[in-house]
Write a structure and sequence with these properties.
Residues 62-92 are annotated as: Disordered. InterPro entries: Arc_rbn_hlx_hlx (IPR013321), Ribbon_hlx_hlx (IPR010985). It comes from Sphingopyxis granuli. This is Antitoxin of toxin-antitoxin stability system. The protein is mainly alpha-helical. Among the domains are: 10-63, no CATH class; 92-117, no CATH class. The chain is 34% helix and 0% strand. The protein is built from five helices and no strands.
């Protein structure tokens, strides 16, 4: 096994360590995985550029809960009734579209086939 030495600025190193921790792996394992993907990838077609690093999705257990960004401090607070008269509800909001329930329950009807497209 060979060792590789690279030079990184402090911020890149910090962010890379955080990302590796989110993925549940070490920074060395993250770099090794990236280099292995790069080496195993088929050669690109002539004239086609590749992204510098393939996108890697974090596993579900490392993703964490969804977060809501707080409103800026200078934002005006919402006012009661501000949307009155600007929103509406369709007349048929409480009715299922034709064939939807048939498709949901697996019934083979003409209307249900429109939901299988």
């Amino acid at each position: 096994m060979k060792n590789v030495t690279i030079a990184l600025d402090d911020e890149t190193h910090r962010r890379a360590r955080i990302r590796a921790a989110e993925l549940g792996m070490s920074l060395s394992a993250l770099v090794k995985d990236y280099l292995r993907q790069l080496a195993d990838a088929p050669p690109p077609e002539a004239g086609v550029r590749e992204m510098s690093m393939p996108f890697t999705v974090a596993p579900a257990y490392a993703a964490g809960p969804p977060t809501i960004k707080p409103a800026p401090r200078n934002a005006k607070p919402r006012q009661p009734g501000a949307l009155r008269g600007k929103t509406g509800v369709a007349n048929d909001f409480d009715e299922w579209p034709e064939g939807f329930l048939d498709a949901l329950y697996g019934e083979d009807t003409e209307a249900a086939r429109n939901w299988y497209k």
